[in-house]
Amino acid sequence: AQTVTQSQPEMSVQEAETVTLSCTYDTSESDYYLFWYKQPPSRQMILVIRQEAYKQQNATENRFSVNFQKAAKSFSLKISDSQLGDAAMYFCAYRSAAGANNLFFGTGTRLTVIP
Amino acid sequence: EAQVTQNPRYLITVTGKKLTVTCSQNMNHEYMSWYRQDPGLGLRQIYYSMNVEVTDKGDVPEGYKVSRKEKRNFPLILESPSPNQTSLYFCASSSPGLARYEQYFGPGTRLTVT
Fold first, then answer.
1. Cβ-based neighbour number of residue A24 at 10 Å
2. Nearest CB partner across the interface for A43, out of B50, B58, B88
3. What is the Cα Rg of chain B in Å?
């Protein structure tokens, strides 16, 4: 099974600053999707950004962007101009492009935003 | 409004008392899944279904059952709950070809087994 590793259990950032959350994964597949999900205190899982492995261009969604390094199997999330509402647990997730409908999640990074 | 609903949202029960957590989606999605979330472990898939009457085990299926008799519903059944099934449970749905298999999650069910 694929494994997803988030090595930073907790991170903090000053409001308006930039923070990068790390994620690495292990797979032998060449085609797959990667996701970052946000889980605020409400516990709702909210999709932040997705990346298709066949695309070399890094995905961007407003203040959120990723650094996708396929050879290194790395998928970090950069949050620019951090806001208080960004405080949450962030999960990195992997999904194969073929086969079973299964998301493999990392263990999460809790982000604190300091006013 | 497109959504995945779960009921109940909170449940406290005792060991051995059968329970069912319901999940329903109104997006006509083929795929549905159940995950459990535990501190330090992230989310792990329990069971999934690729269509009506088609279900399969995920990574942590022991102690759980599911059924998919209708496309919109995917209940999770705990025949004899035990304290190690105390967790936060999420139902999710998705459809191939839409938004690169993005999964839509329900609001979660907090289960405590004493």
1. 17
2. B88
3. 13
Distance of residue B14 Cα from the nearest chain A Cα, in angstroms:
24
d(CA A31, CA B71): 28
Among B50, B18, B17, B21, which residue's Cα sits nearest to residue B33?
B50
Beta strand pairing status for A109-114 and A10-14? parallel
User: Which among A9, A45, A95 has the least Cβ separation from residue B105?
Assistant: A45
Which H or E run contains B104?
A: strand B104-105
Please give, rounded to a whole number of angstroms, the shortest distance from the CA of B7 to a CA of chain A: 14
pLDDT for B18-69, tens place per residue? 999 999 999 999 999 999 999 989 999 999 998 899 999 999 999 999 999 9
- The full set of domain ranges for chain A reads 3-114
**Residue type at A74 in one-letter notation:** S
> Is residue B87 less than 8 Å (CB to CB) from chain A?
no
Considering the domain A3-114 in this protein, what is its CATH number?
2.60.40.10
